[in-house]
Amino acid sequence: MTGNGHGATLAEKILARASGLEKVVPGQIVDGRVDLAMMHEQGAQTVGPFHEMGAKKVWDPDRVVIAIDHWVPASTEGAAVLHRILRKFAEEQHLPHFYDVGRHGICHQILAEDGWVVQGDLAVGTDSHTNMLGAMGAVAAGIGPTEMAAVLALGRIWLKVPPTVHVRVRGTLGPGVTAKDLVLRVLGEIKTTGATYKAVEFSGPTIERLSMPERFTLCNMTTEMGAKCGMIAPDATTADFLRPIAKHAAHPVHADADAQYERLVEIDVDGMPPMVACPYSPDNVRPLPEVAREHIKVDQVFLGSCTNARIEDLREGAAVLRGHKVAPGVRFIVSPASTKIYQQALDEGLIKEYTEAGAVFTNSSCSACFGGNMGILAPDEVCASSSNRNFPGRMGAKNARIYLLSPAATVASAILGEVADHRSLN
Amino acid sequence: MRDVIEGRVWTLGGDVDTDQIISGKYLTIIDPEELKKHVFEIALPEFAEAARPGDIVIAGENLGCGSSREHAPAALKAIGVTAIVADSFARIFFRNSINLGLPAIEVRGVRELFEQGDTARISMSGGTVTNVRTGKSVHFPPLPAHLLELLEVGGLVEKVRLELAHSETPATA
Prior knowledge:
The structure holds 2 protein chains of 2 kinds.
Chain A: H1 10-18, E1 29-33, E2 36-39, H2 44-52, E3 64-67, H3 77-92, E4 98-99, H4 107-113, E5 122-125, E6 139-142, H5 145-154, E7 156-160, E8 164-170, H6 179-190, E9 199-203, H7 205-208, H8 212-220, E10 229-232, H9 236-242, E11 263-268, E12 275-277, E13 285-287, H10 288-292, E14 300-303, H11 311-321, E15 331-334, H12 339-347, H13 350-356, E16 360-361, E17 382-385, E18 401-404, H14 407-416
Parallel strand pairs in A: 2-3, 2-5, 3-4, 5-6, 8-9, 8-11, 9-10, 14-15, 14-17, 15-16, 17-18
Antiparallel strand pairs in A: 1-7, 12-13
Helix pairs in contact in A: 2-5, 6-8, 11-14
Chain B: E1 4-11, H1 18-21, H2 32-35, H3 47-50, E2 56-59, H4 71-79, E3 83-86, H5 91-99, E4 104-106, E5 119-123, E6 128-131, E7 137-139, H6 145-153, H7 156-168
Parallel strand pairs in B: 1-2, 2-3, 3-4
Antiparallel strand pairs in B: 1-5, 5-6, 6-7
């Protein structure tokens, strides 16, 4: 997999199949057949252009998923209108796969847990973190709502074949060190522009041992590297995950042994501490123990988002929380990534544990992550978060400061009231 | 799309993400006329009030990184911005701009040639961006034919409309 020859990368193989070509090369513009199209509230802006294009019918209703997630239930009149536009469109176009309030979840999590994206797919969605689904061994990319209108009309999309950055990871993640810490470490290396327009392909022995939820976290944050898509070659772990849930047939492909990569980034995680992305960029990454020594007080803590709010993340957080309380003066918000995860948390007693410790456990949504719904930060406030972005104004006030952490470290920060290393708690 | 685009310049720094262009609290607004009142509220607070049709935005690296929100280029288009030039663009912002028929031009080294209020002259076919005040120019490789074609017809909506109309026209002998 380290070759620098003329073979094809995973992204090139998938895009070649999608566009019906034998071989594609980076820079080539191809017209790809879409296997799955996903919309959330931004899809309300797709409906207008869809009609303006003169389109009458969605190309394949079984390949379209609508999942509302940013404002659930609608928290403003504007959001209610967006939801209504989507409901009406789904009804008119006979789109059966509409995850409305009550069976909702964060769009990427819905795609993952219901098997909407499978090995070898070309998937597009109206959200930048669609990259997460690349963990299935697929090309999954975020697009805008006008582009989505063209996809719904034609079932195709123009794409520039990206060069691939190969991230090879070896070593063993230490106790309390997670996939989130790994992806932050990679972000520190590649930076927020290092993979712009590119594919990021993870491989190596460490990656092969990761579970699907961990792979989702990894591919999710390739968006913060600027990447068109982030991906992991499909293997037995992928197949085991998808077998009971896959919605359509897979076309697993792998990179050639002599694939031509633009760049190789090698990461050794042996001895790597937990990491934290400091304000105001996800690539401003430092070792957590170093930052924890600065005792940075937090006003709010958020355990949520498509990056880290799966049941495994909630369990990881609960294990840290057990026997502790949320620090006085700290608002701790927990928002599971889907209704299914909410129900699992209920069954496992996690909701009781979190709320008894002083957390607010909300229904599933994007929640505080994007600063437009709930859990909004006031000027000068500080937030520790398991989410993915900490740009100025991301969660509210322009100068609010956001620290991005693993779920375990996020919970430790809620307990101690400062940006904390969970390994220092007993 | 005109071949030569000339206009007053608004300058921005690097890594201006979509939160700084249209912040999260305005995401439920879909009317571009309403959106344009809030554009660059975080990055360039005076812009929404003072920008005029024909203005050009020139930014540093990675313009439009972050969310996939089309609100950002849609608001700039509603204001009447005729071109967005940057040292580099984030991917989705670039695609959204072109798909809306708004020229997004990537030119390495362009940002440092301009100060707020300068006049820029862009030659699409010549592949140059010139500061009219200083006379300094930078070159860019012409956009790929596919993207030029999109801009020529006025964006993706028009392109697909033509394609669908064409495919529905019965073939004549």
